[in-house]
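Review box. Two proteins, two foldings.
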Amino acid sequence: MTPMVTRRRMLGSAGAAAAAMLAPRVARATDRKPNLLYILADDHAGYVLGAQGNRRAYTPNLDRLASEGTRFARNYCNSPVCTASRQSFLTSQLPHSSGVTLLGTPLAEDKPTLARQLAASGYEPAVFGKMHFNTPGRPGLHGFVTVETEDMVARDWGAAAGPPRQFNGIRTKPKWRPFEVPASIWLDSDTLPEGYKYENMESTWVMHKAVNYMREHKDEPFALWVSFREPHSPFNFPIEDRNDFNPAEFPVPEVGPEDAEQIPLVFRGLTPEQKQGIIAAYYTSVRYLDRNVGAVLAALRALGLENDTLVIYMADHGYSLGQHGRFEKHVCYDPALRVPLIMRWPGHIRAGGVVEDFTESVDVPPTLLEMLGAEPFQLNQGQSLAGYLRTGKVAEPRQSIFSEYLENEEACIRTDRWKFIYCSGKRFRLDGYMTGNLPRQTIQLFDLQKDPGEFMNVADQHPEAVQQFSKQMLEIFRATHPQASEEPSGETMNALLDWYLRPRDAHLWGMPYAFFPKS
């Protein structure tokens, strides 16, 4: 937090001289089409951010970005899984509408995307890093002209960096083998670094590719995505960062009285010390992420493009670090859903703004298109946040958010007071986070004013609220689902929710729909 305070004091003391220096640059930004720098993280939880008030998180570059732009403090993803979430805010469609609800589903080649909309407005979009397209990278993919997605990065970085190294007996991470070895190993409970120094890390390589691209295109407007793997498990960070955090200083979140049966089997053997090590590894990975974000922003500044560029930082979804006994996403509890979202464009976006209204990740595409003067999507299921960026308010703030995780056939609605989660119980989840219990329908309602940790299900005490939220969820599906016209007639509300919650994309990649057996 200190760097933000220092910067404010520095700018405040500069007075009129600083204003005179900045004025020509802000004016110059109106003389050319603005750049877009879209920075993405993977699994970065909204609560692990210094600007959000987390004193343990070391994120000075993201904190400064927030102080120079507008931060959305209550932004929620539309699905707590990588692929579905990412394609929702690339298409401006909720996952069930985009056709991507499961981890391995590729986005259809003919889907409208943010990159295609920008290309139609004269940009040549470029992407470096992890995008979860589930399709081999190639020029032109989903509207991106320059493409170096994760498969290409792994090939090119791997050839440049070579295999991990040994550093005088320092223990380093083993090969990542989730679910094949105990969770304590693939979640890095020993807080082990990668076998590389900072300059040889994969995400550092991605950072340099992005910086070189900006340097080569500094005289023409660009739309650049740079997408980092961190802090996704196994929470990568370089050798130099291995002692940045002391695991013993991290408290282990308490498990609620109703959590026992829903804790995935893979986490049940973790000791308190292992949980602390996992949390420390995650925080170290966030620090490494922040360093690479800072390097990209420093290069933008050095190139004289800071005032010509709309910068956005966000993650695909959040992450649970022991809350409810879980160390992953794939669930509708708040830690897995709340996502960092920061936007900056000097002279166009309020500096130091903090938005406390609800926003959703699907709101990002219409916002960027409006701010950049591009044509909107014909089908748009988000709402523009441009009013927040310019004046701090919009005409009709969201009163709730919606998110869905169709691998488990569940969805949720959150308001200021309530969290409503509905699960059909008709699908055997195949994501590795089984609990040992047979699937069953569950309806959860949490009174967040009394129970912010989402521990006590009060659905039975508030049937009227359950009915209201069930109806609201059904209305969302009816308004946005591409198969809404095929809705069966004469069914109960719960049966209709079950029908909408069934993933339709399973057949695309060999994952069959598994109903709970009747016998």
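Next protein.
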Amino acid sequence: MDTQKTWNISKATQLYGIDKWGAGYFSINEAGEVVVRPSGGDDGPKVSLHEIAKEIETRGLSMPVVLRIENILGSQIRLLNETFRRVIRESNYQGEYKGVFPVKVNQQEQVIEVISQFGKEYNHGLEAGSKSELIAALSMMKTRKASLVCNGYKDEEFIDLGLHAIKMGYQVFFVIEVPGEIDLIIDRAKVHQVKPNLGLRIKLSTQAEGLWSESSGDASVFGLGMSHVVDVIDRLKAENMLDCLQLLHYHIGSQIPNITDIRAGAMEACRLYEELVREGAPMGYLDLGGGLAVDYDGSNTNFHSSRNYSIEEYCSDIIESVITVLAKNRIPHPTIITESGRAVVAYCSILLFNILDVSSFTPPPIPESFPEPPSELIENLMATYNMVSSKRILECCNDALFYRSQARQLFKHGQIGIRERAMAENLVQHILIKISQVSKKMEHIPRDVQSINKLVYDIYYGNFSIFQSLPDVWAINQILPVIPIHRLNEQPTRPAIISDITCDCDGKIDNFPDPTHERNSIMLHELRDNEEYYVGIFLVGAYQETLGDLHNLFGDTNVVSIHVNDDGSYKFARELEGDSVADVLAYMEYDVRSLRNRFKNIAEDSIHKGYITARERKAILADFEEGLRGYTYFEKE
């Protein structure tokens, strides 16, 4: 690490990689604070996240808070649509682009409403995969020119709702995912006398890289195989309804890191599209599903948390692939639909929280003298400590771990006491720290020594729940950018991992983005007395808000949405208080009134048995009521 005298904002930017994963939306100002730039460029307005965090608390909302920047949603929708339009124009493509946002990626009403509003200009529609999502989408559609794509299993009510929407002039597509759906759609269309717009979801042989590779290929749960496609075509022909078939849909995975897979999938789908046209279907729409990835770690590679392409390359390769395949037989260019959800919403949401406490790895100083006579164990550890150097680093590493194991075994068998074991553990920590410091100056670090570096860290306890707010970090080891949102003009000196407050060993973040490799710790600042230390976890807008659970009965966090004005000022567009204790208990089927009455009876019984007075009962019940109304997270007095 640099000394404080040479530390600067440029080095902070490099350390946390904010210029790599921030996509132009986030940077660090000269005051050492993370700023958000909703337009995604240097010329637009910017506002300090630290300033916003302090104002949120001034308004009476406690950390943790999910902060949404509405403008970023508009910027991402604009970027996607304008890029496709430019590529279409430059490539002389004869069709158009009409994106849809999959509601499942972020189902929050505020998010869907803002997306629909910003998307109106581009006829950017929605995708629904359930009856509930369809009802939400129908109520949010801002224009009849936008598409509403219906995926998933569809019962009679689902289909009826979609048919009613078609009758009202909306562009609704029923995508047939399983063979049995076609008969029900045909039957309900006859009942309502509505001509349905149909699509087929197909299983491609193309297999994408990444964590969601099973979304494609023969292992895919949804989609029609080739024989089923033929059966549906024949069924539609028999009903004289082949003219209803207008759309071909496929999905080869979310967060596709490799552009080669995207090209391969598009070209294979175009061949099937061509065959459907030959069968007599009018077609006109090609839905490529989701997959447009987010560069979470800033590496710009085909690693699962990144992507090796830009949005412009994504659009260009799709358009080029369609032109290349369909030009051979002069098939008219279809309207392109993508169901890009992650790329649209990931950047707009940030989880802000304060650090409550730190468990430091730094041991007490080595004593100047030891009890006489010093034991062989302590002498061996001191010798190891004095011997640490780059030439003997592996030997010292092995010795330290051996002596630590020996100390623990001796203690178990009653051969040393707690004070000697504590002294031994203290010396081992000093040795490991010294090994770690020496290794950072070495060009080639032995593998066993690298594992030591993963042990030398502090634990910073954050006021949040991994399971509620960042479920993918726990479930699939998703890498998300983490950075303190202030004090970045000071050099951070403490390697750390971040623990949540769920009392669960899995409730931690120990995998951080790095342009060249994964890091098992992050550099943070030492805490100051009577001063909050705020940390932000970025790019959490996709899936995290809707997948969270109530582990340890930690509920939804407070949510604040802001809109940044052109002059750099901002307004609080929406505030939504998080769950209270009573809320989460009710979610878990507790009868809160019954809980209250039972506790009152316990308090009354405590009076009769002489444990408390009537006055104390009143105070206890008041605190119980206050607890029910309280936020599920740590609240300052």
